[in-house]
Design goal:
The structure is a single chain. By secondary structure, the protein is α+β, with helices and mostly antiparallel strands. The chain folds into 2 domains: 115 residues, D-amino Acid Aminotransferase, Chain A, domain 1 (2-Layer Sandwich), CATH 3.30.470.10; 144 residues, D-amino Acid Aminotransferase, subunit A, domain 2 (D-amino Acid Aminotransferase, Chain A, domain 2, Alpha-Beta Barrel), CATH 3.20.10.10. The protein is built from 7 helices and 15 strands. The strands form 2 sheets. Strands 7, 8, 9, 10, 11, 12, 13, 14 and 15 form a 9-stranded mixed sheet that branches. Helix 5 links the parallel strand 7 and strand 8. The protein is globular, with a radius of gyration of 19 Å. The two termini are 24 Å apart. InterPro entries: Aminotrans_IV, Aminotrans_IV_CS, Aminotransferase-like, BCAT-like_C, BCAT-like_N, Class-IV_PLP-Dep_Aminotrnsfr. Belongs to the class-IV pyridoxal-phosphate-dependent aminotransferase family. This is Aminotransferase class IV.
Length: 274
């Protein structure tokens, strides 16, 4: 079952016209949310990011999303699709109507799909440094969708080189993010992460780690950092809504791991209960 503009429909009944603006112009964005133990993980933060993305794209979000009434429908969809215990929700939102580059309306259509999945592994990652693409800061780079092709090409390079993930740099050769994760590192008891202006996504778990660190009186810095300097840190880890994973090597060079800190962070953010 799917949830299309607030209506439950079988997947076989979904019919989108060729004039669909998401298909024609990539005129929209998406969110990926984990459903765990009957709850939408970090849902309030996702609603806030959807509102911010819609403001940038001049999209008018449906009232059901703005009002906060959508979560009950989404959990019902998860239950129907046997994904309430652990599942992946994808919210797709795009500009309604036809038109060419100039749209007919700023109202949005939306589609929610949920499928059961297994929790992500927690084994440390072996990552490479991406050479084919770079991130680029823009009004659209903090949310998902407009720059999707960048991550597709990084994924192709990852597959070709046999790494678990790829470290993406910006045009100034500064550390930005991984393919679908943000990156953090510890050095001398300070927690670092790339600044949003490096072109990285403003990740939901990234926000929650910074929020937790602030409450725990752990000093944090959002910085501009070169990849070579990562080899000198005390620990590096990736994070997204599926979990938090240590990074063990970069381009085959071993880096320090602090699995105790990462395990504690998973517990603090609720990942160990999945």
């Amino acid at each position: 079952m799917l949830l299309y503009n607030g209506d439950f429909i079988p997947e076989s009944e979904l019919k989108l016209p060729l004039t669909n603006r998401a298909f024609q112009f990539n005129d929209g964005f998406f969110e990926t949310v984990i459903v765990a133990n009957g709850k939408l993980r970090f849902w309030d933060d996702y609603v806030a990011r959807m509102q911010a993305a819609a403001n940038v794209l001049k999209l008018e979000l449906p009232q059901t999303i703005v009002s906060g009434d959508l979560d009950e429908q989404l959990l019902q969809l998860a239950e129907t699709n046997n994904a309430a215990n652990y599942g992946r929700l994808k919210m797709k939102l795009w500009r309604r109507g036809c038109g060419l580059y100039t749209p007919e309306t700023n109202q949005a259509d939306w589609l929610a799909t949920i499928v059961p999945v297994t929790p992500a592994p927690t084994t440390p990652l072996q990552i490479g440094i991406c050479e084919t693409i770079t991130t680029n800061f823009s009004p659209f780079s903090f949310f998902k969708g407009p720059n999707a092709l960048l991550y597709v090409m990084a994924g192709i390079e990852k597959k070709e080189k046999g790494f678990d993930d790829m470290l993406l740099l910006n045009r100034q050769n500064q550390v930005s993010e991984l393919i679908s994760s943000n990156i953090f590192w510890l050095k001398e008891e300070v927690l670092f992460t790339p600044a949003i202006e490096t072109g990285c996504v403003k990740g939901i778990v990234r926000q929650n780690i910074l929020r937790w660190a602030n409450k725990a009186d752990i000093k944090t810095k959002e910085v501009y950092f070169d990849a070579a300097s990562l080899l000198k840190t005390d620990a590096i880890f990736s994070c997204n809504v599926t979990g938090i994973r240590s990074i063990a090597s970069i381009n085959g060079k071993a880096v320090s791991i602090d699995e105790g800190f990462v395990t504690k962070l998973r517990a603090e953010l609720g990942f160990l209960s999945q």
